[in-house]
Amino acid sequence: MSVKSDAATPKELSSPLAGTWKLIDGEYIDEKGDLMQYRDVKMTALKVMDDGKFWASGAGTYKIDKNRY
């Protein structure tokens, strides 16, 4: 799995893993047992880590309608 961090430098953080991470690439086994690539199914995700803990994520698609999503 490849990820990218938009975090500040490690000296400014409580943990070298703290920050927002974006899923770049990876793979998983689907319900049929087939190996799938995230990029092939257009899977994206953001994960937030702070104080050594994973505490939020976002994945999937969304639709914007005026001021609602």
What does this structure look like?
There is one protein chain. The chain has 69 residues and is mostly beta strands. The protein has no helices and six strands. The chain has strands spanning 2-5, 19-25, 27-29, 35-37, 45-50, 53-59. The chain has a four-stranded antiparallel sheet with strand order 1-2-5-6, with no helix packed on it. The mean pLDDT is 75.
User: What are the segments in which pLDDT stays under 50 over at least 5 consecutive residues?
Assistant: none
Strand content: 35-45%
Number of helices: 0
Overall average pLDDT: 75
Class from helix and strand fractions: mainly beta
What is the helix/strand order? EEEEEE
Specify the biggest β-sheet: 4 strands, antiparallel
Q: Can you describe this structure in just a few lines?
A:
The protein is mainly β. Helices cover 0% and strands 43% of the residues. The two termini are 28 Å apart.
